[in-house]
Structures are given as C-alpha cells and as structure tokens.
Specification:
six-stranded mixed β-sheet; 2 domains; 329 residues; alpha/beta; Purple Acid Phosphatase, chain A, domain 2
C-alpha cells in the first residue's frame, strides 16, 4: 500500500485564558508566564513538524479587556514565531457573550491587528501548500452565534468543496441554558471534515465520531483553572491532512506542566467547596421549609445531589442556578 503524503500539519489548542493575575484557585507567582511558556512549547512543536498554523478554538483571553502586559507578552509571542495563529472568539474574549462586538470592545482586536487571524460567523481562511492541488479551509464559529447553532444542529450549509477544519467554541454536551445563553450539544453536527472544540476544559469526548462523518475533538484547555483540573494533563492535537484525498491522521500530544499541588491552593479549594455547598443546602432547605416540607429530609436529598458535583467550585452565580434546578426537582 503506497505511503500517504500529508502536506498540511496543524497544532490545535484552546482556552488559554490569558490574564495577568493568577486565577483564585492558583498560587503560582505568574500565571501569565506559565501560559506563554505553554504557547512557546506549542509553537516550537509546530515549527519542528513543519506545521502551517497553530489553531485555537476560542477564549484566547480570559476577559475582553486585559492588562497591557498581557497584550505585550502575547504580541512578543507572535513575533517570536513565524507561524500563523488562527482562532475563533470564545465567551471570555467578548463582552456580554456578544461575539460580534470583539472588534470594538475586546483587546482581541488589538491582537488581530498584530497578526492573529480571527474567524467568526462561519467565515473561512484558505491554507495552501505547494505539495497539494487543494487547500485546507479553516472556518471559525464563535460562542453562541447563529451560525454556530446551525452547525451544531446539522443545519449549516457546506460552502467549500475541500478539506475543512472548523474551530468551534461551544460545548459538545447536551443543550442547556447558562446566563441566558443557549448551549447546544454537537451530536447532530455535520459539514466540516474535522471540528476542534473549545470551552469544555476537561476532555470527556476527546475523539467523537458523528453520523455525518465529521470527526470532533476536544482535548481540554491550555489553562488549568478549577479544582477539577488539578491533576488534568494538558493536551493538544497534532493534525496531518491530505487535502487532495480528503484524509487525515491525528496525534494527541502532552504539554509538560507542573504537578497540580504545586500551582493550586488545595486548602482554599476545599474550604470554598464546603462553604458554597453549605450555602446551597441551607438556602434550598429554607425555601422548601417555607412551603411545609421537612428541611432535614430535603437537606439529605439535596446533599446527595451536591455530592455528585462537589469536585466543582461553586461561584455565587452557579449556586443560584443550582438552587433553581434543585427547587424544581
């Protein structure tokens, strides 16, 4: 059998959430330095294998507006490597989850002017190789866009008769509502040959086959933020493509990271989990008791539910959502 040539190579990642200060659950001195170092590792690997681009599936930044040092360090990163960075827009990149506002209300637009390729709304960029008759098309689907919803629901119209990689910032879980935004599971996805997902930091479906033939990947985030990620390995996807024959190979690669107990404040995490769980239990018990239900029995019931989730860090917003869910149940 003749050996297949793969003229196109890509390194895929997501959810770097660049910021100056360390997230609340971490205690390392410089979170920004650690993420930039991980990016350097990815770009060095991309250079070593001859990749055409590093692909990023959204949440490049942790907030629409970041400290000047974050911009400076990120622009220096882009300048160090002669390899394009192509991304879509995640919910952290844009104000109020409105992807279309990033050009006016997000520092992602500053990075775009410095050379980062930003793709949203199903817009595409062609990548060419002298070894291939056909290009590879990279298409971006930002968070909660109509085009993204259509893609996930199997309603998107394929615009390209060539190998297509979609960068999608969305969950691959079932439909849910969070903060007024609709998140649709990707089970009906069709159109691109490969879809690389950002947003979910864990990797529950690292390699997912759709009925349509599309292959989806989610290897988790470049950044480790919450307790569930203390011991999570950081992975990226190395993708090799033959655009003429419409075939590809992929490899899961690891990024070297420090042990979780060195960078996470485990004692603080445990304290917050307990405090927020107790807060949720007490609030639900009071609400139900006012309706004549026994708060002790209710607390036992709700406690069992919370125990299924106690690996999470509950923010006040998450507690509110949890209370609403439990009161209905």
């Amino acid at each position: 059998m003749p050996k297949i040539n793969y003229p196109f190579k890509f390194v895929c990642t997501s959810d770097s959430q660049l910021q100056l200060s360390a997230p609340a659950m971490r205690r390392d001195a410089s979170f920004l330095d650690s993420i930039i170092a991980k990016f350097d590792y990815l770009f060095a690997h991309a250079e070593r294998i001859g990749a055409q681009a590093v692909l990023h599936a959204g949440d490049l930044l942790n907030n629409p507006k970041v400290d000047p040092e974050v911009l400076t360090e990120t622009m220096d990163l882009i300048d160090r490597w002669n390899i394009p960075l192509i991304c879509t827009v995640g919910n952290h990149d844009c104000k109020h989850n409105m992807v279309g506002t990033y050009k006016k209300k997000s520092h992602l637009s500053v990075l775009e002017k410095h050379g980062v390729n930003v793709l949203i709304s199903g817009n595409s960029l062609e990548i060419h190789s002298t070894e291939s008759k056909n290009p590879v098309v990279i298409t971006g689907y930002g968070f909660n866009e109509p085009e993204t919803m259509d893609l996930l629901d199997g309603m998107a119209i394929r615009k390209h008769d060539c190998f297509e990689i979609a960068l999608v910032h969305a969950t691959i879980f079932g439909t849910k509502e969070i903060g007024g935004s609709k998140w649709i599971g990707a089970k009906n996805l069709k159109g691109p040959d490969v879809a690389y997902f950002g947003d979910v930091h864990d990797d529950p479906w690292a390699d997912f086959h759709h009925k349509s033939g599309t292959r989806s990947f989610n290897l988790g985030a470049l950044a480790r933020i919450t307790k569930t990620e203390v011991n999570r390995k950081i992975k990226f996807l190395e993708l090799h493509v033959n655009a003429d024959d419409r075939v590809f190979q992929f490899y899961e690669r690891d990024v070297p990271v420090a042990p979780g107990e060195q960078v996470f404040d485990i004692e603080k995490i445990e304290k917050i989990v307990v405090e927020n769980a107790e807060q949720a239990l007490a609030a639900v018990a009071r609400a139900k008791a006012s309706k004549g239900q026994d708060p002790v029995e209710l607390a036992r019931h709700v406690g069992a539910t919370l125990n299924e989730h106690n690996q999470r860090i509950y923010t006040p917003e998450q507690v509110t959502l949890l209370l609403k869910t439990l009161e209905v149940a």
